[in-house]
């Protein structure tokens, strides 16, 4: 179990905090299942729902307790503090928890600039810290933090992104390489696995007039929301866990597979993407893949009955097709 989650639950027990709560960045924990959860990542959201937590796509209302497990980026965390404040009832309490290696002490200090710290609990190499909503929070700080969550355009492009999503301030160089090697002759029904904010689908629809439809599958609801702005034309958008399989079969599948779960390297996730891709190609269909050079995907593709062919290897990436 995520040690920051354990520490959050411990802080609730130690300080006898009232529930029901709103839980932003929710993950399943036996002590927290009465909370209303919000979780943008589909696999985690599904785990929470299966464990019995009631999940909200867009939480509403005010809560006496707001719990917050931040994501990876600094902007996302600070914007998350401001968002948590929106849901706090007068007199309510916000408790956030992070790993020490993710900057727990630094973020505790940041939060205490907006409102006085109530308590802090250190355990499991993590820290949970709380502020109240009895006094108004510092307005200038709240306004600055709110601004961090605003959608923005990647410099020199027309692409909309928000903090916290994959490649939130640039086009991923691996995806750019795959885009360069996508044949203009690509046609039929296409799937984009782990579509992020939509770069590959945008390029494919612009470059390949024979595409009849492209289905974007993405686990992060915030990235998917951006892709709706970035991809126009014959596209459908699915908040979906690719490792659970796809609902249809495709002529071509595009992917720059993830290989991290949270902060940790997870080659199994990349392999699961390729397994789903292999099962979801129509007869004669083709997978178009980019990966870091050192990732051992070829053997896995062969074990799935696909024939990998190296198209390019440059800048630390390799582009592979497999039919
Ligand atoms: C390496 S990024 C590529 C993103 C995008 N295709 C691009 O080129 O910018 C991998 C994407 O897979 C998404 N992802 C991770 N796990 C997933 C899962 N289980 N199901 C669907 N998408 C997932 C991540 O949120 C991320 O957007």
Please tell me about this protein's structure.
Helix content is 32%, strand content 31%. The protein is elongated. It folds into two domains: 3-148, Vaccinia Virus protein VP39 (Rossmann fold, 3-Layer(aba) Sandwich), CATH 3.40.50; 152-322, Vaccinia Virus protein VP39 (Rossmann fold, 3-Layer(aba) Sandwich). The chain has 323 residues and is of the alpha/beta class. The protein contains ten helices and 18 strands. Helix 3 crosses helix 5 (139-148). Strands 3-2-1-4-5-7-6 form a seven-stranded mixed beta sheet, sandwiched between helices. Strands 12-11-10-13-16-18-17 form a seven-stranded mixed beta sheet, sandwiched between helices. A two-stranded antiparallel sheet has the order 8-9. The structure holds S-adenosylmethionine. The site of S-adenosylmethionine has 20 residues, from helix 7 and strand 11.
Task: Write the SSE topology.
Blueprint: H1 3-14, E1 22-24, E2 36-38, H2 42-51, E3 54-55, E4 63-68, H3 74-86, E5 88-99, H4 104-114, E6 117-123, E7 126-132, H5 139-148, E8 152-153, E9 160-161, H6 173-181, E10 187-193, H7 199-207, E11 210-218, H8 221-230, E12 235-239, E13 250-255, E14 260-261, E15 264-265, H9 267-279, E16 281-292, H10 297-303, E17 308-314, E18 317-322
Parallel strand pairs: 1-2, 1-4, 2-3, 4-5, 10-11, 10-13, 11-12, 13-16
Antiparallel strand pairs: 5-7, 6-7, 8-9, 14-15, 16-18, 17-18
S-adenosylmethionine binds next to helix 7 and strand 11.
